[in-house]
Amino acid sequence: MSENKPPVSKKALLLKLAIVGVAVLLVVAYLLRHMTLPELVECGQSVVARVKEWSKTVGPIPFFAAMALLPAAGFPIMVFTLSAGVFMVPQIGLGWAITGVLLSLGANMALTYWLARYALRPVLEKLVLKLGYGLPQVSQENHLGLTVLCRVMPGAPFFVQNYLLGLAKVPFWTYLWVSWSIQGAFGVAMVVFGDSLMQGNGKVVFLAVCVLIVISVLIKWVRRSYQKKKVEAT
After folding, report:
1. Is the pLDDT of residue 169 over 80?
2. Cα(226)–Cα(223) distance, rounded to whole angstroms?
3. What percentage of residues in the chain have a pLDDT greater than 90?
4. Out of 70, 118, 123, 199, which residue is the most buried by the measure of CB atoms under 10 Å away?
5. CA 74 to chain centre
6. Which of 81, 79, 82, 91 has the alpha carbon at shortest distance from 53?
7. What pLDDT does 135 receive?
8. Which spans in 75-201 are helix H?
9. Buried residues in 222-234 as b, exposed as e (16+ CB within 10 A)
10. Helices 94-114 and 158-167 meet at what angle, rounded to 10?
11. pLDDT in the model for residue 184
């Protein structure tokens, strides 16, 4: 009986994700049907302007504190990195915005590692087993490779990657420097992209996009290299 439960849990999870996806598509279809494209653009600009005004009342300290904490509960990290370029750069400058993003990323990675490795480990172990997956068992010599692969493989959200590496008992400093390097590069590029987008600086937008493409290509190359080594090892 217990062996049949995990597949059901997986199907239930996929069903929930499908329902959310359909709901989003229905909302988009409704908006497109009842509003013209210029109206949608104007509405989007109005929302951005209001959020920008609201961000001035929030300030950088609450913003970066939220960035350090909320992704641990699944909040998309890209929302913060892009918003830092849009809303924080006008307040504190590009250099301090990038510094805040990098520090918040490091703090969030340390927090989620501690939660997965120690504080919430029993709960997360039960959840993983309930979903029909096994806990990652990794030898010491493969810790670095696992961390790199987890960060460059597409699909898994940022917070899921953090929890998986914590559950796998990857050494903290290996986990942190690899994760911080890869995610930090993306974070800096997103801050620059968001700032240049708001300023209407086409050259910097193009440069930021090029940097993101280069990082993506490098990640793809690293992923293929590790997969090739894995095949050769077997």
Report:
1. yes
2. 5
3. 26
4. 70
5. 9
6. 91
7. 72
8. 77-83, 89-92, 94-114, 121-130, 143-152, 158-167, 172-199
9. ebeebeeeeeeee
10. 40
11. 93
Query: What is residue 7's three-state secondary structure?
Result: helix
Residues 162 and 67: their CA atoms lie apart, in Å, by: 15
Nearest residue to 226 (alpha-carbon basis) of 148, 141, 139: 148
Three-class secondary structure assignment of 20-81? HHHHHHHHHHHHHHHCCHHHHHHHHHHHHHHHHHHHHHHCHHHHHHHHHHHHHHCCCHHHHH
d(CA 121, CA 128) in angstroms, rounded, equals 10
Tokens for 165?
A: 């590496």
Burial class of residue 188 in the structure, from the number of CB atoms within 10 Å of its CB (0-12 exposed, 13-18 middle, 19+ buried)? buried
DSSP structure string for 131-156: TT-PPP---GGGHHHHHHHHHHSSSS
On whether the CB atoms of residues 105 and 185 are closer than 8 A, the answer is no
Look at the chain and count its residues. 234
Compute the average pLDDT of residues 185-194: 88
pTM of the entire predicted model: 0.69
Rg (CA), the chain: 20
Record the tokens describing residue 16, joined without a space: 């929930």
pLDDT for 16 beyond 70: no
Q: Are 192 and 160 in contact (CB under 8 A)?
A: no
Q: How far apart are CA 118 and CA 139, in angstroms?
A: 19
Q: Which of 75, 71, 73, 76 is nearest to 106 (CA)?
A: 71
